[in-house]
Amino acid sequence: MRVRLWEGVSDIVVETFDIVQAHSQAVDSARSVSKVTVQMAVQDIRESASTRTTTLHSMRCQRCKIQLLPLKPRELHMVKTESNYHQDTSAVESGKKTMQEVLLNWYINKFQKLINFYIVQELSFCHA
Predict the structure, then answer these.
(1) What are the angstrom distances between the C-alpha of 51 and each of 21, 87, 116?
(2) What is the pLDDT of residues 15-52, one digit of tens each?
(3) Residues 60 and 79 occupy one common structural domain
(4) Of 53, 71, 117, 128, which cross-links 76 as Cys (Cβ 3.0–4.6 Å)?
(5) Number of CB atoms found within 10 A of residue 110's CB
(6) Looking at the predicted structure, is the pLDDT value of residue 123 above 80?
(7) Can you give the residue range of the structural domain that contains 30?
(8) DSSP string, 43-60
């Protein structure tokens, strides 16, 4: 009787070991596939970054070459016009901000006077 019990237990242990071993192999296989996939993705990112860096460098060099060329009268006019536009826009924004502050102060002053008027009216009504 005991021999049969141990035989059954050993069969279960062997089956369990086989299942664990199969699971371990599947996990190892999945890890290796994931590792290869990640390595490929990292390589693609590096290549893309390298390409972008090269492109940006060449664009910057081209821009430097263009800036060294003498400006034509029309281009010079465009640069001056753009500069004037930015200065004018800044001045308008500053004026708008000042106007808002003036109007806000006026409104607060009027509101304060109105409150004071009603307080005086209320006090005179209470004393009468």
Answers:
(1) 45, 38, 71
(2) 777 887 888 887 777 777 777 777 888 888 888 878 88
(3) no
(4) 71
(5) 10
(6) no
(7) 1-69
(8) HHHHHHHHHHHHHHHHHH
